[in-house]
Each structure stands twice: as C-alpha cells, then as structure tokens.
Amino acid sequence: GAVVSQHPSRVICKSGTSVKIECRSLDFQATTMFWYRQFPKQSLMLMATSNEGSKATYEQGVEKDKFLINHASLTLSTLTVTSAHPEDSSFYICSASRDNGYTFGSGTRLTVV
Amino acid sequence: AQSVTQLDSQVPVFEEAPVELRCNYSSSVSVYLFWYVQYPNQGLQLLLKYLSGSTLVKGINGFEAEFNKSQTSFHLRKPSVHISDTAEYFCAVSGGGSSNTGKLIFGQGTTLQVKP
Q1: DSSP code for A15
Q2: CB proximity under 8 Å: A 54-113 to B
Q3: Which tens digit of pLDDT belongs to each residue from A46-77?
C-alpha cells in the first residue's frame, strides 16, 4: 500500500532557529503533497499544497516566508519553519494524494523553546 | 467550497455497545467523503471513503458509513466497539470528480471514549 514517511517525529529547537521537516512517498510518486498543522485537541488545518517542480500554494493566513515548502522531486516535499518561535509549536502532518485517496505521514511534534 | 461539521466533540460509550459518530457536510458540487482515525501523537489512518456508487461503505476494523445526499450526512457506525477503538475520529470532504482539487477539509474531530 501507499506509505508516506515523515521525519523527524519529534524535534525541539531554540527560538530563532529553523527546522526542516521531510515528507517522503516511499512506494509511489506524489506530484502533490499537502501540509497540515494541528493544535492540541483541534482539527487539522491545511497550510499549503506542495506541487512538484513549482511553487507551493498557501492557504489564506499562512506566512509563506515563515513556512517554506520545497517539492523538488516526485517523492520528497520539505517544510522548513524559519525563525521559529514558541507559537509555532504544533503538530505538523503531511499527506500525499493518490487515486482520489490520501495517505498521511505520522506527523512531527515541533516544540520551540 | 466545502465544509464539514462533526456534531459531537466527545462520545463516551461502553465496550461492546454500538456507536455512531455524526458528520454533516456542505458543498455546492459533488463530493468525496472520508473518515480517518488518529491515535495520540500519530498521523491519520483511513477508515473508509466514499467516492461513488453504493452509499453504504464498509471500512476497516468493523466500521461502516452511509452517504446520505439528501441529508448531506456521512455518519460513521460500528455495531460493537472495543477499548482499542478509543481515539480521535475525523470526517473529511473534498470536491468530487472534476471538482476535485485534492484539498481535504476536515471536521473538528470526535473523541471516542470506550469504557470497560
């Protein structure tokens, strides 16, 4: 079946530093990947749509300069949280679409201290 | 644009009892509908999906859901729950057919608490 690998699963970083999260489709090519953010006890909010070989499409209210998305290949999309601050602490989840279905990564718990 | 409303934030139920988690959607176009389960600090696992065809959809772990177009609902059911079903459940919608942009819109989630 379709598998999406997301790394790291947990990361703690200092305020002001940048963090990169990777999302890989292991056994299929994903021309489109999605990045979500989830606050505790809340739903998933779509941040951006990542398209291979082109610029990401960000949802309204998402700072594109803070959340840099790169989709350089058909199997890898990365989300970089730049100049992280405590309010960026959250659970980030990626997903890849395939055949009208969606496969999700296991998520990354980001804590900014 | 689509939206999803999960009518119950928490559903407590005793083990081996039946359960229904409610989901209503709104959309001006055809839709695809999904139910996902999330365990603590993990990603989402697909339980079932409706794309077209039979309105009764059977998924994994004994779950099923029925697509009701007239009531714009997609309620999730299980005839007998287990302790291991305790988790967060999300209903999601995307545009269907030619309206599909790939974006999934999620409901607020329902916490299923199965008690012994």
Answers
A1: T
A2: 91, 93, 95, 97, 100-107, 109
A3: 999 988 888 899 999 999 999 999 988 889 99
